Amino acid sequence: MRAVVTGGAGFIGSHLVDRLMSEGNEVVVVDNLSSGSMDNIKWIGSKGFRFLKRDLKDPEWAKGIKADVIFHYAANPEVRVSTVNPRVHFDENLVTTFNVLEACRNLDIPFIVFASTSTVYGDARVPTPEDHKLNPISVYGAVKLSCETIIGTYSRLYGIRALILRYANVVGPRMRHGVIVDFMRKLRENERKLEILGDGSQRKSYVYVDDAVEATLVAFRNMDKFNVYNIGSEDWISVKEIADIVVEEMGLRNVEYVYRPFEDGRGWPGDVKMMLLDISRIKNIGWKPKLSSREAVRTAVRSLLNG
């Protein structure tokens, strides 16, 4: 298989690249390195691997590329950014997705796999199935939903086979944002006090990156013309419990937690307070996570401390 991975120097994308290359596929990574890092790529010089430093906002980004599938993982993943600079998500997520779809259409690339997010559901009943009402409460979630919509339209109009994957919070080695990274950074600056955005009761599902990549490939191997799957754990964990794990794994004691709650105890405007995905659909095709949310968080913390 000839695969293009956009954002392949980033967190999830680079782990997907490792798996695709280890299985003997040809892989082209396209990344502008705005948030990704060449340190995440170990395949330079390997047979069947190419790296292209290109910006997906350029309509000509796919020049010279031939592929069977595009795994579209390039995006700005910072939900909080949209509260102060929403244009970032429009440019980095929606414009880039349109240009990827145009590449599929113009270059006859038959498959696209899109990394979407649980935030498209907004404040939803839990566990949340794929057919739940989509009502995002952040610009990030709204833009990701817009991407899903335009992908679905291209699939119907041009016959591009599309796979939408709505990930819970993915954690593991190489991650550079999110609550775990935030807590570790703050505790390195001050071992006695930890600022926690929200009231600590926010409860969400976490999935380890190896589980997420395995789910991605299981879904891809079973895809039809257009499919949507939730990818997450079957349980959830509170922000306060994550803080406890980080403190414990860093070998700290008597850390004072200072809570900074927004409305209803949320961490910031647009923060989904409770998120647990119903993963019955993807379990029916043969995948389930090996690690629980708590295990995923603890394993991720250890990998970051040892990395």
TrEMBL record:
| Positions of the NAD-dependent epimerase/dehydratase domain | 4-232
Check the record and name the CDD domains matching this protein.
Answer: UDP_G4E_2_SDR_e
What the entry lists under InterPro entries is as follows:
Epimerase_deHydtase, NAD(P)-bd_dom_sf
Q: Which domain of life is it from?
A: Archaea
Report the sequence similarity comment from the record.
Belongs to the NAD(P)-dependent epimerase/dehydratase family.
Family matches, as PANTHER family: DTDP-D-GLUCOSE 4,6-DEHYDRATASE-RELATED
| Protein name according to UniProt | NAD-dependent epimerase/dehydratase family protein
UniProt source species: Candidatus Methanodesulfokora washburnensis
